[in-house]
Specification:
With 485 residues, this protein is of the alpha/beta class. The chain has 23 helices and seven strands.
Length: 485
Amino acid sequence: MSKSAKIEVSKLNLDLKNYRTVPQKNEVDAIKAMISINANKFYGVMESIITDGYLPTENIILLEENSKYTVMEGNRRIACLKIIHGLIDAKKFSIREDLLSSIKKLSDEWKNENLQVPCSIYKPSEKNTIDKIISLAHGKGELAARDKWASIATARHNREVNKVQEPALDLLEKYLKHGQNANGLQKERWAGDYNLTVLDEGLRHLFARLGYKSVADLVKDYPKTKYASDLENLMYDVGVQEVHTRDFRNETEKYVTKYGAKPLPQATQSTSNNTQANSNSGNSNSSSNAAGGGANTGTSQSTSNNSSATATAQAKKGTAKATPKSYAINDPREVVGTLKKFKPKTGRPKVVTLKNELITLSITKNPIAFCFLLRSAFEISAKLYCDENGISLKTIPKAGSGKKPSDKSLADLLRDVNKHLTNNNKDQIKVKVLHGATTEITRAEGILSVRSMNQLVHNEKFSVQPSDICTLFGNVFPLLEAMNI
């Protein structure tokens, strides 16, 4: 049986093998993973503790082993308390300024009152009981759950505790180590928030077409398989929600060929369908003969032939080259599609964050917010590009003028970036590609200009139309992309 006791936060160890994410090296990495998976949830817990103190509504679940307490349930709460008490340096995380300010204002009395937390302590022999508690709390669905597990956490639990094979999870974790087409921030987030259901659906349609006997065999062969880059493209597209379960079910041929499988020959598909039709015809004839209904045989054969013709037509349709959807330049769907394909190079986590937020925003409902995020993406990208390519961020005054160096405006930075990208306008192809973007982004009256940003904030009558934003985005995106590849 468990025992209950109040224990100091400093004596509690975070679970470095939390099912929500991949195993972590230390508590700092574990907290970073929690924040990456759901920052709003983490900071919401922290804000609640700061505002109301630690409310002992539910005990922290601990495993006591070799005089060491490991938190099996309540990791977010304990992580927040460790940061609040200064047991882990808050500077190691990108915590909101308002929360940091609130932590500094906490009294000694508050800290003393919240130094210990009520815990339920279990021995190693009671691990099954702990697992039942955790499963009830997170794995049973919304009504029974405290905070429903994502599919990836459920899969880890099934694999580690129930010993169920989870090849999609195995492949994802290999990809997080070896994958070449995702940045560090994306990998950190996908370690705990990733739609394994979609990946599993894709793998089940792919493995045989790639020459493997099972999904497990395909996963075992990664990353050495010759299809490694195709699999990584699949996993990236699942991560950025570019592909969905319905795609593999409704447009199988289109998507399996996108990820490495060769198209099925039309003749093969037709033969297969005819064979199936003939088989069905034979079954129908047998039933008719058994019933003594010879007249029905012709009807069955006719139906089978019609089925065969329909199947053949469907096969032809399936092998036809899929035409990608396209939208008008002023359509928000075109903007979202372009952003989803945008892959900033490694080392640009802020740009990735801005990109992801831009994707989630509705331009129709949040046009002003979209403009500010897009402007921020250009600001950050321009500064990073200048730093990496030795372009000064300062305007140097003339000697003897008495003026101090000043920060360049975004317009000036982008002009310098454009010169560098086009080799001082010698690369005429790039000049043409970037001309519209540079012209638009440096216009004093442009939507993304400082003047317009100020108007959006201060002028109650100044607004922007969603269609105009979409058109603007189409014009300026080539420059944003060029700065991040």
